[in-house]
Amino acid sequence: MSDNFNWDDYLPSDDEDREENEENDLFGINNPLEIEKQMFIQDILRGHPIPIDPIEYEDLFGTLTNKDLNEIVDIFFTVYHRYGVDSTTLIDNWGLDWVYTIQHHCEKKEEYELCSILKELADEYQLVVMLLSKSIELENNGLTRLNKVS
């Protein structure tokens, strides 16, 4: 008898018990979008602008779980402390949709101090946007009047 004997050659295959993607799952993640989700989390932690709103997030990655929201709240306030209290930069990067989603989550958890910070940021941002739009409107009207006089 030869030394190349292998019991696997004579036993029935047990591959039916495995999930079909298990052998191709190099990172130990069954859901391929989980990698994309973790990359999204890394990007926002680094302070990059968020390219999607909460609705698009749910379309891509599924419903926002409490774990996801807790992580996003932590990241938001980490970035908030990194930028300081400059609401324009912060909300330009995150968007008001995310701020309101985070605020709603904080209300559910009864973290009212965080809610008040989020409300102040959103109010300040909306005031700045309103003043900028009025300033541009006044400049445009002024230029129009100067052109009519000339």
How would you describe this protein?
By secondary structure, the protein is an all-alpha fold. Helix content is 65%, strand content 0%. The chain contains six helices and no strands. Residues 145-150 have low confidence and may be disordered.
Instruction: Pick out the low-confidence regions.
Output: 145-150
- What would you call the structural class? mainly alpha
The secondary-structure element order is: HHHHHH
What fraction strand? under 5%
Span between termini:
108 Å
Estimate the global geometry from the Cα principal axes.
elongated
- Say how many strands there are: 0
Overall average residue pLDDT: 80
In total, the number of domains comes to 1
Please describe the biggest sheet, giving its number of strands, its sense, and whether it closes into a barrel. none
Alpha plus pi helix count: 6
- For the CA atoms, what is the radius of gyration? 26 Å
| Helical content band | 55-70%
Secondary structure layout plus pairing:
Blueprint: H1 33-45, H2 54-61, H3 66-83, H4 87-94, H5 96-108, H6 112-149
